[in-house]
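Worked Example 4.2. Consider the chain below.
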Amino acid sequence: MAIVPVTQSFLAGEKVTASKLTAATKTPLDFLMNPPRCGVYTATGIPCPSGTSTLITFDTESWDTDSMHSNASDISRVTINTTGQYLVTFYGRFPSNATGYRQLNFRKNSNGNAAGGSTMSTIHLAAVNGAQTFVTRTFELNCLAGEYFELFALQNSGASLTLDSGQRVTGMEFRWLGN
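Applying the procedure from the previous section yields the following structure tokens:
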């Protein structure tokens, strides 16, 4: 868990020591230059049956500076370890199919259940005829340490579709912005 540095002040006439100067400048700058952030994606396609919410698992990390994701356990989750405001992006790309809609549901503390926890954001788009349907959303979210987030896909084409895989194709990203 990253620790957000506490700002330091100096009193008039106080002798500036190396340790206090480091605490006042270097430590906060180091934190801000590499804040808590995590990017995960699926490197293999995820089959999505028609009319059924499907939990998306993430088997690959683009980066993870705060141990927010594990490829060994709970691979569908990104868990917040440092409280704060985060810039969150989630996205998924469905193959071409002209029927129905494509949806991504971003949930907090859902324990792998599409009806569990709380919906934080849902985006629902009509299918694109002759092209892939790319569903994405970016927003800021206040997060507490210990909360975790999962992503569910839903489509109603009448047939199973496989979500496309790859970095910045189907995944989630979190970046700490501040308190």
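The longest strand covers residues 84-94. The chain has one helix and twelve strands. Compare this with Example 4.1 before moving on.
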